[in-house]
UniProtKB/TrEMBL annotation:
<dbReference type="Pfam" id="PF00392">
    <property type="entry name" value="GntR"/>
</dbReference>
<keyword id="KW-0805">Transcription regulation</keyword>
<keyword id="KW-0804">Transcription</keyword>
<dbReference type="InterPro" id="IPR004839">
    <property type="entry name" value="Aminotransferase_I/II_large"/>
</dbReference>
<dbReference type="InterPro" id="IPR036390">
    <property type="entry name" value="WH_DNA-bd_sf"/>
</dbReference>
<protein>
    <submittedName>
        <fullName>GntR family transcriptional regulator</fullName>
    </submittedName>
</protein>
<keyword id="KW-0238">DNA-binding</keyword>
<dbReference type="InterPro" id="IPR000524">
    <property type="entry name" value="Tscrpt_reg_HTH_GntR"/>
</dbReference>
<dbReference type="Pfam" id="PF00155">
    <property type="entry name" value="Aminotran_1_2"/>
</dbReference>
<dbReference type="GO" id="GO:0030170">
    <property type="term" value="F:pyridoxal phosphate binding"/>
</dbReference>
<dbReference type="InterPro" id="IPR051446">
    <property type="entry name" value="HTH_trans_reg/aminotransferase"/>
</dbReference>
<keyword id="KW-0663">Pyridoxal phosphate</keyword>
<dbReference type="GO" id="GO:0003677">
    <property type="term" value="F:DNA binding"/>
</dbReference>
<comment type="similarity">
    <text>In the C-terminal section; belongs to the class-I pyridoxal-phosphate-dependent aminotransferase family.</text>
</comment>
<dbReference type="InterPro" id="IPR036388">
    <property type="entry name" value="WH-like_DNA-bd_sf"/>
</dbReference>
<dbReference type="InterPro" id="IPR015424">
    <property type="entry name" value="PyrdxlP-dep_Trfase"/>
</dbReference>
<dbReference type="InterPro" id="IPR015421">
    <property type="entry name" value="PyrdxlP-dep_Trfase_major"/>
</dbReference>
Length: 459
């Protein structure tokens, strides 16, 4: 291989946006050894790349792709943002209406960076081997203590299985505990991705309507008393955000005990409850260990981290452990280590407390902006918590067309109707508000779709 080929490879990678401005390139010596060419060959290629401005050499600190490089053609917008400076965290994402994203502008980045550095530096050799399948032990301990204190559970660290989130939880639970034709119940309307996954995984899937008190237990008892699994969002029903009433919680638990069925509790945003005291998890009332509790850090930290967990009932731990070794490989250790530290040093609690107050304010701002921008077009059945609102349409067109219009203008809302399976659909938009920083900002964002929305809905 000659210098021209090395030069051409780098240029191509940079132009395709695969090597980003600010990235460090290997030293001449190590690349020469890797490619088994003379050092001089690599040196010549690097000299040309530096001469043309693709590389900059910082002497003993190494050689980098020029951080100032601005490519006009193939570099995507994402790359352009992250190339601003290799060491600057890009935290701004103005006015994102996506569902269930934490307030990214308020994330404690500095603290997180500090802990990340410490965690990376302290990786011990044994932590570089295969990670434990059920999770990094200090993280399991921190999660169980958090759940016991904040969500009213009474679990032990050995009951915690750390996973990559909701869908991983469902797949694992069904793989370990379900027989192929077991009857599985899901709320209607219910979490879009949950429904899609279950349609593929559960051949005997049925739906239970939801009313203002949550999943309709009478319906369950009348038509599906023989079910093996019921998947519920008791704290804030997804997407309607109503809470499962206390009598229904007790009925559901008694049903599971009598039938030896399992309740899968999806407590995805239970931390965020505003006007009354935080509602304890359904699992906290579960005297007979029939609830498999599932949670996620997607709403409290960030979805990109992909860390969730479940609490295995005592009698199932051995089965999860045995099959887990076959089905899973454990999550990457470093993020688990960072998270464990973030929890055990108390930052997590402080952060949630702060977000609870902030989200309450941001929800008010969003509602105000919708009411002013679209007077009389939407109505709300406000509940006490959650991270999104449902703007029910008073009249007008199918919500899919409306959501498509908003999406075209980068307002990524969801059409409510797409979360229904069998029950009579209601129409509206599911809107995240956690990244709205002021009423003015919200109004400005809505301005993008105001005219066309009014046009569509007033037909
Ligand atoms: C109802 C519901 N459950 C669970 C989750 C969490 O999903 P994950 O842990 O995969 O990020 C979400 C996220 O949007 C959700 O809306």
């Amino acid at each position: 291989m000659g210098y021209k080929e090395i030069y051409a490879r780098y240029r191509q990678q940079i132009q395709d946006g695969l090597l980003k401005p600010g990235a460090r390139v290997p030293s001449i010596r190590s690349l020469a050894s890797e490619l088994q060419v003379a050092r001089k060959t690599v040196e010549t290629a690097y000299e040309i790349l530096t001469g043309e401005g693709y590389f900059v050499s910082l002497g003993a600190k190494g050689t980098y792709i020029n951080p100032e490089l601005r490519l006009t053609s193939t570099v995507s917008a994402d790359n352009a943002v992250s190339s601003r400076s290799p060491h600057t965290l890009v935290t701004e994402r103005k006015g994102d209406l996506r569902l269930g994203i934490p307030a990214l502008d308020e994330f404690p980045h500095k603290k997180w960076l500090l802990i990340s550095g410490k965690a990376a530096r302290s990786l011990r050799p044994e932590e570089m081997l295969m990670p434990p399948v059920m999770g990094f032990q200090p993280l399991r301990e921190a999660i169980s203590s958090y759940l016991n204190i904040s969500r009213g559970l009474n679990c032990r660290p050995q009951q915690i299985f750390v996973t990559s989130g909701y869908r991983a939880n469902l797949r694992l639970i069904l793989s370990v505990l379900a027989q192929p034709d077991d009857k599985v119940l899901f709320e209607d309307p219910g979490y879009f991705y949950g429904q899609q996954l279950l349609k593929r995984m559960a051949s005997n899937l049925h739906y239970i309507p939801v009313d203002r008190q949550g999943m309709d237990f009478d319906y369950l008892q009348r038509y599906h008393n023989d079910a093996r699994f019921a998947i519920v969002t008791p704290t804030h029903q997804s997407p309607l955000a109503v809470s499962l009433s206390l009598p229904r919680k007790h009925q559901l638990l008694a049903w599971a005990q009598q039938n030896s069925s399992w309740i899968i509790e999806d407590d995805y945003d239970g931390e965020f409850h505003y006007t009354r005291k935080v509602i304890p998890a359904l699992k906290s009332l579960d005297m007979h260990d029939r609830v498999i509790y599932t949670g996620t850090f997607s709403k409290t930290i960030m979805p990109a981290m992909r860390i969730g967990y479940m609490v295995m009932p005592q009698e199932t731990v051995a089965r999860f452990s045995e099959l887990g070794e076959i089905l899973e490989t454990g999550l990457p250790l470093l993020p688990q280590k960072i998270l464990a530290q973030f929890l055990s040093e108390g930052h997590f609690y402080r952060h949630i407390k702060k977000m609870r107050l902030l989200y309450q304010q941001r929800r008010r701002m969003m509602l105000e902006a919708i009411e002013t921008s679209f007077p009389g077009l939407f109505e709300f059945e406000l509940t006490d918590g959650g991270m999104h609102i449902v703007a029910f349409q008073r009249r007008g067109i199918e919500d899919t067309a409306l959501a498509a219009l908003w999406t075209q203008h980068e307002l990524y809302v969801r059409p409510l109707s797409s979360w229904y399976a069998q029950t009579q659909k209601r129409y509206g938009l599911v809107i995240g508000y956690t990244n709205i920083r002021s009423t003015e900002e919200a109004k400005k964002i809505l301005e993008r779709v105001k005219g066309k929305t009014l046009e569509l809905m007033q037909h």
